[in-house]
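From the pipeline queue, job 12 of 40. The input is one protein chain; the requested action is below.

Action: predict structure.
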Amino acid sequence: MRPFRSWACAMLEIQPQLGLRRLGSGPPYTKGQATDVPESAAPRRAGRRPGPVRSAALAAILMVAPLLTGCLAEPDPSPTGLLGTDPAATGTAPSTSAPLETTQSSNKAPVYWIGRSNSNVFLYREFRDVPEQENPVTRALRAMMSDKPLDPDFFTPWQNPSKLATSISGKDVITVDVSEDAFNSNLDADMAIRAVQQLVYTATAAAASSGLIDSGQQIRVRILVDGHTDYVAFDHVQLGELMGRAAGMVAPVWIIDPQENTEVPGGSVKITGRSTLAGGKLRWQILRAEENGTKAPFLTGETTAATEPGQAGLFTLALTLPAGDFELKMAQAGIGEQPDQHEDSRAFKVR
């Protein structure tokens, strides 16, 4: 969990413009409906439908409003270019900052969310329990657009779509056809880029982890809106062309397990994660909740991200912990006198 003040500042940048209502979900499309669709004659832009502000969202905004005085201007997160102008930012270039997920037997869906680290905004992944009525890619995207992240530091600007369908053609192309109401949020250009990449990462992760597409391929995604190409997502991102995972989008430090607020058995607790610096040093700390509600340091240490092919950047810890409520903090170690960077954290329980 990033510091609350930073999180609040990030959300205050976005929430005043967000369409806060969730739209009702209609019957899902069946697999294959995203293919053989007509192209539109001109780019189409998301309509802005004013919706009622939910009381809970308003209360949350009012609660963090006093923090506005401490929200100083921060550098814009990179990349700053729009999709279609910078290949590295668009994902049209065959570059990636995170390897594709490998096939797994679990029924959990990999879902990417947006979160803040230092002055930048990155993508973070959670594995979620989802209904099995739809294909793996569709249900992962539906969770991304309609569910809330387990970690309260993460968020999604997507809205629950009335229609959503996905299909796979050949060995490496995923087509996503989503209704226009999914884009009913006001975003700036940088956040719009991240939102589209959030969809690309989630779709490719679901296809690879479920075995629908060979993870050795460079998987690409085409996004259609109500069956049409050339839609301008969030009034900033041109859709319709094939897109891949853009480099620099995933968090520099990323705790995979345990997930937020999960319970793990006592004894040896396995902690896994990934760093974008293969072979880089990471510092970690375990805090334990006291009876008075405070958190006290319990264990500290260092580890090194793996460098082996196929495992580059991964780190694993096996810690012996008693029963209790804990918080894990992990960060890339600073060089020399520099402070540690890109901290990620997870709260979990040992029972």
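Job complete. The first helix runs from residue 4 to 14.
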